[in-house]
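Known limitations

Files may contain more than one protein. Parsers should not assume a single record per file. Below, a two-record file is shown to illustrate correct handling: read the sequence, read the token line, then continue until end of file.
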Amino acid sequence: MNAPIIDPLQGDFPEVIEEFLEHGVMKCIAFNRRGTLLAAGCSDGSCVIWDFETRGIAKELKDKDCVSAITSVCWSKYGHQILVSAADRSLTLWDVLKGEKINRITLQQTPLQARLHPGSSSPSLCLACPLSSAPMIVDLKTGDTILLPVCISDTDTASSRGKVLDGTQPFTPTAACFNKYGDLVYVGNSKGEILVIDYERVRIEAMVPISGGAVVKNIVFSRNGQYLLTNSNDRTIRIYENLLPNKDGLKFIDEIMKELDELDGAEKLKAVGTKCLTLFREFQDSITRMHWKAPCFSGDGEWVVGGSASKGEHKIYIWDRAGYLVKILEGPKEALIDLSWHPVHPIVVSVSLTGLIYIWAKDYTENWSAFAPDFKELEENEEYVEREDEFDLNPETEKVKELDVNEDEEVDIVNVEKDSAFSDSDASQDELCFLPAIPCPDIVEQHDKCVEISSKMIDDDNSGSPLSEEAAVNGRTTNHASSPLEVLDNPDDAGGTRAKRRRKPSEKGLELQAEKMPKEVSKKVGKAS
């Protein structure tokens, strides 16, 4: 689509369902950082990678040891690995290009979500959020785990680890995520608090209380790391502005700690929290008061999107950062279970309860007057009467203005300008954006049936049955236009079609019929005389 002919007043957000993808029963999705590949976890334990440009399957990752549903998928920074968590408590790291397992470990609890460390090109650490345990840092090479504190009283990791292993204390699933470069972990707990944790020292560095104290169900950063989104049980989506620098956030926190030496305990953590996050906006449906599912940011962070958690409806709400609801996308009567915004384009991808992936795109309206202000669009054809001098050549008045271009200036064709959306890319790293296409064999079941039916018809023809001979003698014509495919497409008429096919005489049958024809004719002539 040409950018100049797009109406600039149209919002840069999706509006209609452009297409849907179908492969088994898909449960969760994730784009790579360029948006060229889409990974989808299925209910049978497989992970399907779609080429988002061609909308075809580029690769399928299937672990024979895993037959449980996939709970989450996560790409590495440069797209060479995918981390897959499953309901059988496993975490599997895949090599995308080779389609081979790198590591596979089994946790004590089912991981609802797992995220690779975002600051490494070949990460070995991941953040897992189990069903009945505190979030943990997992070393995928050694299998070692470090439980993170989920409240201020749990800073002693040994005591928290004992509680989880004994299973004596009920636990509410806790949401957690890395910051942009992965030096801090942000945890949303069941007390309505956001904890900023240094996972290397296993220490809470700051705490931000959420108004109302509702359980935090989701927590996610925007792509640029400037905003943090939380989804709570009080049916409200909150946006916080990140006041820490994206890099070296720990050093900044340590400096704040030194300035607040006079405070201690929870008061000190709250004071540091005010220097880390500040509430920016709240989103909610004040009329229906619905719960939200899989909220996230757009690729540029300008839009906030959330799916309705109501059963039997597939609604997606889109707000701008100012807090205004700009669009409600209404899909089929199927519950929504996952949602993702394309990293670059105004495209939203949603997963329904039936396992289909719906692709929502923008309904573009071309504005041809962008080429010339005096351009006029006609509703219907009109007869045009040209002026007498309209097409006369006037060389003096039609001189083309020469462009002020320095022809001696050297053009840089070596260096590549960095895209602002990927400003953190390392030029020395080879990024995996596309996968080689693997041709799939055609389905031959229907073809085999056609061949079988055709062979049966040929056998019947070679038998030279009296039915075919009688048909030829009586001058009955046969239907040779029908094909075996028609037989398969019309099973009700299959018997009649095959019967017609049997009347087709073979070469030997034709010879016999040619010999018998004069005899039959002579007999009839004798009787008539």
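...continuing to the second record:
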Amino acid sequence: MGDTQSISNFTFLILTDLRAATVPDTLPLLLFSSSAMAGSSHARLLGPASDCRSCPDLAVAGRFRGHSYGRFTHEAKSVKATVASYALSSSRIFKFPPNFVRQLSTKARRNCSNIGVAQVVAASWSNNSYPFPSAAAAAANAVDAAAAAAVPATSDAAALEGSIGTESLKVEEGLGDSRTSVFDCDGSVAIHAGERFGRGRVDDAITTPVVNTSAYFFKKTADLLDFKEKRAVSFEYGRYGNPTTIVAEEKISALEGAESTLIVASGMCASTMMLLALVPAGGHIVTTTDCYRKTRIFIETLLPKMGITATTIDPADMNALEVALKENNVSLFFTESPTNPFLRCVDIKLVSEMCHRHGALVCIDGTFATPLNQKALSLGADLVLHSATKYIGGHNDVLAGCVSGSLKLVSEIRNLHHVIGGALNPNAAYLIIRGMKTLHLRVQQQNSSALRMAKLLEAHPKIKCVYYPGLPSHPEHNLAKRQMTGFGGVVSFEVDGDITTTIKFIDSLKIPYIAPSFGGCESIIDQPAIMSYWDLHQTERLKYGIKDNLVRFSIGIEDFEDLKADILQALDAI
């Protein structure tokens, strides 16, 4: 071994057969060292293992106590030399928790191939649960013999240290600060060690770290005052911002070409927060007939309590929009494009020009389009909103919503968000970040499969009609071609039959899940009449165009041929 090498990986091998009926009180352990690494990592490895419990007989622990949480001194010797010097005396015993041996993995017990220097120490059950003194004595003798064989001829620890090297442990910055000596009790050390007076940063990590904290501290009151008086920028409270969440917001802003993005706990949270922040009491909004039902419920039942009224128009009826703008003091035009579930498209450029002439803002919910297929802001909209639960997250495992636009408008929404809440958990933000890394691959596959599926269904005799912007039969097909680069992964269609026939078709499918939501890797299918409108009578459902035989099919990223075969066999079953 070279002089500058030191212990990096430890493998404990139990020499006593734990399955034997007579387990000794003192169990001999081999402490192996393998390939050398930097000293700082050794500090983290050796510390917890060498100072497990306080004990008057544990002379080892005292040698490691210093200003660094009782773990390492500033003048620490080479790890090898330190361990070797303790191995010379079998009377010095490391104590471990009662279940220490049982916690050793099978892999650890077998990993004995990279042995460099072997020193022998003994581990003793702290609760003395195995009263076999004779066996313990025999084990101790075995320790002495093994130690004598493992250590070089000289018994002088100093000489041994010199032969191994004098490289000191590299303690992480901040961990050796003399201020840590304020902690005299293990409880305080367990709370603050490695954190209170500085911690390592992970700027070089490939993936974005998840920062799980509810609040952020200031080193001194002057720093807090600088923050409050806007001389410095800082995080303060978890609801007001999080480093992980900000990465997700910046990623979405970059895709949308927005100055700012606010990401929140769900798509509905983003919608309601936007409406409450930008529409004044007594204001008026314009929306479309085809939209997400929960959005409609909020507009029709909750906004009127604040004196906010609404005009509802067909997505393509620009004359109705012009009338609404002239007859009302419209604050906002808000719609989806494409819409849910009929995938109607709004002429975003024309609508934006008309609304801006009357001083109204335009917000487009682009969830069905994704930021890849449609750039609503570049077409003239003031804001673009997404249920990030769908395509942006893309894995059916996270709830989130976002709204993007100018810094001025998003800041108004953010200020209300700070009051009302609905903050996105940083773990959820991480899932959004991870999902977005494959967004372009998923959407490309879903665009392709959905278009092929729409054409297949439209040509099938058991399908009455298909709703998909990529088909020439769609009322806004030409508009979709102008303002979209892809038509999305959702296809809606009507089965040639009643509700019973449609149920039989859906139940015959093997691949898609019967579930709400869309945009994930897995294909999902549902009957809106049952999934979203079952609480309404059939006649009420028909007012919104929801027929009993309507099906919404969210195409996943499965191979198209598998989906095709599944759809055809299900149609054959009806």
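Parsers that stop after the first record will miss the second one. For reference, the second record is described as follows. Confidence is low (pLDDT under 50) at residues 1-140, 142-178.
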